[in-house]
Amino acid sequence: MPPLSLPQYLDKVHALSAGLFAFIAALYYIRRSVPAVRTPKHKGPPASRFLLGALADISEALNSGTNIALFDKWVKEYGPVFGLKMPFGSRGVAICDVKAAAHMLSKDTLTYRQMKFNSIIVEQSVGPGILWAEDEVHRRQRRGLTPAFSNSAIRSYVSVFYDSAYKIKGAWEAILDTGADTIEIQSWASRYALDNIGIAGFGYDFGSLDGNRPAVMDYFNALKSPEDAGVLSRILFLMGSIFPSLLRIPTEASLLLTGIKGSLKHVAEDMMSKAKHQIKTGLEKELEKSIIGLLIKSENATGIWTLSEEEVFAQVRTLLLAGYETSTFTVSWALIELCRNPKAQERLRKELAELGSDPTWEQMSYGLPYLNGVFQETIRLHAPLNEILRTAHFDDVIPLGKPITTASGEVITELPIAKGTAVLCSLSYINQSEELWGPDAKEFKPERWIEGEGELRAGAKAIPGYHHVLTFSDGPRICLGKAFAVASVKANLAVLIRNFEFALPLGPDTPIGVHKGILRRPKLVSEDGPRIWMNVRRVN
């Protein structure tokens, strides 16, 4: 073989170097592609539809009010942690184990984040606010809003809640004076919710309890669940879990979401303008602890806690929508349960009558055990949000309350979760699990919360969240406005139950259906929309 010339030699070296570099790069890529943690395969229910996976079954169960029965069946068959077929054949994990749920929720916004398609839907409807934000952005936004939901702030809002409740009382008495004896209570619960969040949170009176019909109410009430908003909307929603950008294509659903965003922006601009005028005229004391006052302060702050103008508007939209829907939902279900359980309604009325006045915030919190029991049972049995679906942003290992057996037969006491894995936590199942709450877990029993009459089982006491109920979630994303919601609902019930008796049209067993909106609101089965007619009578 003839000796190589210098140029030939250098060419060989370059070729070998390039080959070696390519080999090392390939090894690095392969190593990066293989996750450090692998999510083990778990037994789980078969998916009835390839496109949506098990999410189709969950959605149908929610729409028919049978979601708890579905999760009961799955947990009995596969255990408290099981595999879940996700859209287009991908694999996820469902968690119904309390210890695992507590761990996951404690890392919400950090390790576990919203699915991309969900973030897009939230951004389209309300903007980059606290429901949309993750990690440090979420922490910054939450810190700016927290003082508006402190005990002292809630105490100052209670008078607003009573003013609204007494407006309902006056309106209903006028209706009964005409000889009518039935009232559609859910529309009044909606007006109560909107006026409360408007006045208490933003110093803005929508006047819906005085007969006004704000445009924003029409937008809220027109919202449908994504899977029920037209063929194109449904197809893009299904495919959005794999191709999130498709959700930005204009459809019936997306245009409705952007309509809400636009409508609420005008409201937010008006609120901000009036609040800033108050500050200029020396009335800033009135806004000091209000949501709008804190938002203005955050917008004008310097450093890492500053909120942009778009973030400020997003918080207004988010809090209006969340406050409107959840309060309406909870008041409606509380009255339904009290109609289904007349003895509970009478006992609550007696407790409130014995107090002899409107309860203070402290009395609502600690001095009225049966009112508290009614509230706790309502939110335990009827959570506005039933499941939380997240994606693991990092590899994680989740501790388990009990050992589980994987599909391969391996017994594990902790659950490895690989980055990118979809994880679903069923809040409603944990709220109603017979293993945790006992054989009467599905029954409305306010007594279980009263010392000396009921005793929470050890399993229920291990549940994190608000008083051992996961309805407000837990961890970094625990509902910021939970105290606002508690005070608002309890104040309304205190006035209404003390002054009126309620009954469902066909008695306690009147069939209740599901209306598919932003939340799945209750409705009479005989009604097309979210309407609940009740027989209402004055209390002498």
UniProtKB/TrEMBL annotation:
<keyword id="KW-1133">Transmembrane helix</keyword>
<feature type="binding site" description="axial binding residue">
    <location>
        <position position="479"/>
    </location>
    <ligand>
        <name>heme</name>
    </ligand>
</feature>
<dbReference type="InterPro" id="IPR050121">
    <property type="entry name" value="Cytochrome_P450_monoxygenase"/>
</dbReference>
<dbReference type="InterPro" id="IPR036396">
    <property type="entry name" value="Cyt_P450_sf"/>
</dbReference>
<keyword id="KW-0472">Membrane</keyword>
<dbReference type="GO" id="GO:0020037">
    <property type="term" value="F:heme binding"/>
</dbReference>
<keyword id="KW-0812">Transmembrane</keyword>
<keyword id="KW-0349">Heme</keyword>
<dbReference type="Pfam" id="PF00067">
    <property type="entry name" value="p450"/>
</dbReference>
<keyword id="KW-0560">Oxidoreductase</keyword>
<comment type="similarity">
    <text>Belongs to the cytochrome P450 family.</text>
</comment>
<dbReference type="InterPro" id="IPR001128">
    <property type="entry name" value="Cyt_P450"/>
</dbReference>
<dbReference type="InterPro" id="IPR002401">
    <property type="entry name" value="Cyt_P450_E_grp-I"/>
</dbReference>
<dbReference type="GO" id="GO:0005506">
    <property type="term" value="F:iron ion binding"/>
</dbReference>
<feature type="transmembrane region" description="Helical">
    <location>
        <begin position="12"/>
        <end position="30"/>
    </location>
</feature>
<protein>
    <submittedName>
        <fullName>Cytochrome P450</fullName>
    </submittedName>
</protein>
<keyword id="KW-0503">Monooxygenase</keyword>
<dbReference type="GO" id="GO:0016020">
    <property type="term" value="C:membrane"/>
</dbReference>
<dbReference type="InterPro" id="IPR017972">
    <property type="entry name" value="Cyt_P450_CS"/>
</dbReference>
<keyword id="KW-0408">Iron</keyword>
<dbReference type="GO" id="GO:0016705">
    <property type="term" value="F:oxidoreductase activity, acting on paired donors, with incorporation or reduction of molecular oxygen"/>
</dbReference>
<dbReference type="GO" id="GO:0004497">
    <property type="term" value="F:monooxygenase activity"/>
</dbReference>
<keyword id="KW-0479">Metal-binding</keyword>
<comment type="pathway">
    <text>Secondary metabolite biosynthesis; terpenoid biosynthesis.</text>
</comment>
